[in-house]
């Protein structure tokens, strides 16, 4: 198992400085949820108010999920064929597709990290111990490289058909939720696909019923998932804020928090979907999503959609705190009133 660095807490004084100032201002208090975002980022940066974001990076961990090839009575579990993984990778490499479109709109950039494929987790382990160690370390070193290059907001993302099924297996196991309850619509499924999905999730959950922690990750996730977990652990240890936006990334955050307590404080939920695994993961992490976009595209698209709002929250908070400071300064400099006997 690679070494995991203890995770520090964000600066609560900076968070309270922003939150308290905004809550005591009539105008500032009217900004609603944006105040929480501005306070969170101030805590992560350790300054009040937070500085404007300069380098937002989306890190897409791409890897084939073995269960994507599974069928039941001749029907698969996803509206996308497993071959679409390669097509989406090519699109990303060419700077095309919805994620790049949104990244250009927000001034962010995307880096794709290709990971090894996983086994079919309903009948075999996802990966060996050696592959887990390699994937987890890949996530850690990727976080280090991005932070060393100046990233001040990271968006861990994923690409791989079957990702919602993996999330369902892991969160179903983590929360002791039955397969028929934890299964979600994924990329859009027919009744026959839903049956296949439930069957695969049931069998995978049965295989890992007596496992815990890292053993669950090795048995029932994928190298791309292990890399996500390692990435989040390392980024949090290095005091770098992250946005999460999908079922698999939220599930990875749950397991990262289990391995390195405190990771959740460096996370903000950009959006939510209707996947039960996603909802349960955010509840466990005590994260309230900024948006309710219900996007199923992956690749950090929903998180990228939230970046302009975060930029606006930082600017609004900065302007309001400056106005409050100026008002206090004017009051302190005002001459004392003179009274006649």
UniProtKB/TrEMBL annotation:
<dbReference type="InterPro" id="IPR003200">
    <property type="entry name" value="Nict_dMeBzImd_PRibTrfase"/>
</dbReference>
<protein>
    <submittedName>
        <fullName>Nicotinate-nucleotide--dimethylbenzimidazole phosphoribosyltransferase</fullName>
    </submittedName>
</protein>
<dbReference type="InterPro" id="IPR036087">
    <property type="entry name" value="Nict_dMeBzImd_PRibTrfase_sf"/>
</dbReference>
<dbReference type="GO" id="GO:0016757">
    <property type="term" value="F:glycosyltransferase activity"/>
</dbReference>
<keyword id="KW-0328">Glycosyltransferase</keyword>
<dbReference type="Pfam" id="PF02277">
    <property type="entry name" value="DBI_PRT"/>
</dbReference>
<keyword id="KW-0808">Transferase</keyword>
